[in-house]
Amino acid sequence: MPCLVEEAIEPKREEARPGSNLLAAAASRLTSIRGHHLIRILSPWPSKPASHPEKLRPTAYLDGLRGFAAFLVYWHHHELWAHVPLQTTLIESSFGYGGLHFFITLPGIRNLFHGGHFAVAAFFVISGYVLSAKPISLIHAGEQAKLADNLSSALFRRWLRLFIPILSTTFIYMTIVHALDLRPDNFNIYSTYWEAVWGWYVEVKNFSFIFHSGDVPWLSYNFHLWSIPVEFKGSIVIYTSLIALSRCSRNARLWCQTGLIFYFLYIVDGWYCAFFMAGMMLNDLDQLSAKDELPSFLTQFRPYKKPIFYTMFAIAMYLGGSPAHNAQIEEMRRNPGWYWLSFLKPQAVYDPKWFFLFWAAVFLVASTPHILWLKRFFETRFCQYLGRVSFALYLVHGPVLWTVGDRLYAAVGWPKDSRTENIPDWVNIFSLPKTGPMGLEISFLVPHLILLPLTFYIAEVVTRSLDEPSVKFPQWLYKTTTARPARLPA
């Protein structure tokens, strides 16, 4: 392909000013680049040919697990949004709750319909694992200077990487809602656009400050994003722990990690910190295992690896379905199969589901690479695609649900007072029967013929236009602002 200068070299016309052809060619080229970039962003097709698949990384299964978990969040939120309050209570409860038995509440099966909480727990453990991977390898190698550089870069980039997509997508959502007067539930409606912009600014500035002491952790423009400040707090826990433990011996480091997990889970209500620390410890153990440097206490279990990890996976599938109707321990004890388990909850933990989801998520992440069929499933092209768009899918599925989804559910006959009040023209215009198992009714599944591809398309566009740049921009900014050592005189 000819370069820009080669394309600009043309016979010189007498009436043309010097350099005009070069400027015209450059302008034409720049316009072409912008056009191609816009087409790439808006195209529904992958940007890379399917005939040239990328080689999977050793931890590609974690990308697939994170992506599949993001899809479970999508499905869980739709289940709760479409159904009536009694049904949502049953979906969030165990099999047999209130003497009622539904297929989607069976142990294991329920994770596919009620797995949003389990998915978020897995997000946190995976984040702890991934964020600590490079630093732990440097700690093992004794590279203290490189460790300092790595953590400096990671901490500099983390807030920007997490919050640039949030600020962008919520601003766009706020603008669209105001411009089209959509009036979704739980959304502040302002008389003018500038009032709407100011209301958005006041909310997001407090939401993005993780030390904010306000009582409401939700962002009204997208309340599903409550987990992002938690993600940033967990990242800080990882980075500070890595620095603190960087000069410890192997055994001391592992004992300190264990002690921190116990402290966060049993002494104080720092459940999310325990998730991140557990992910960090799993990564440490995996890297030690790869070098055959595990403590002797653990190596004696190697002959029993297969039954141990299958048992951990089975426990994860059961505990991942922890009842989540509310945070009251008395309510959990009304759920069949959870009465005796409820007494395991530590006094420090306020919401019991996070205690059980801690063990579920840790066991799932720990066992996945050792169960071949499970690892291969998360390495499939579909799960890898979900992993690539997972953050964008998490960001956009709520706004699509509250605008397009709400109208489609109203159209097929799902009742809700706010739909009758805000979108009466959509109610029952194409009523469908509610036949089928709860959570799999015809009138629930049909709207997803539109909602699923629409949500994936928007997630793809957001990935290309906002998520990927939010990774590259902090990297560029860090390199630009980093002081370089002065050169010695010749």
TrEMBL record:
GO molecular-function terms, A-Z: acyltransferase activity, transferring groups other than amino-acyl groups
Domain of life: Eukaryota
Chain ranges of the Acyltransferase domain: 60-423
InterPro entries: Acyl_transf_3_dom, Acyltransferase_3
Coiled-coil region list: none
Record-linked PANTHER family: ACETYLTRANSFERASE, ACYLTRANSFERASE
Protein name, as recorded: Acyltransferase 3 domain-containing protein
Lineage: Eukaryota, Fungi, Dikarya, Ascomycota, Pezizomycotina
